[in-house]
Amino acid sequence: MIRLSKTFWRLKWWMQHRNLDMAGERCD
User: Fold this and answer.
1) pTM to 2 decimals?
2) Cα 19 from chain centroid (whole Å)
3) Element (H, E) at 1
4) How far apart (Å, rounded) are the C-alpha atoms in residues 14 and 27?
5) 25 or 4: which carries more pLDDT confidence?
6) Nearest CA to 16 among 2, 28, 8?
7) Distance between CA 4 and CA 27 in Å, rounded?
8) For the segment 5-24, what is each residue's pLDDT rounded down to a tens digit?
């Protein structure tokens, strides 16, 4: 269960990071 949660959080962080990168490129 802990392992699954860790993967889930990592995926969520990756999605947020990707969104920030996309927003930055879009803004720029």
Assistant:
1) 0.46
2) 7
3) none
4) 20
5) 4
6) 8
7) 34
8) 999 999 999 888 887 777 66
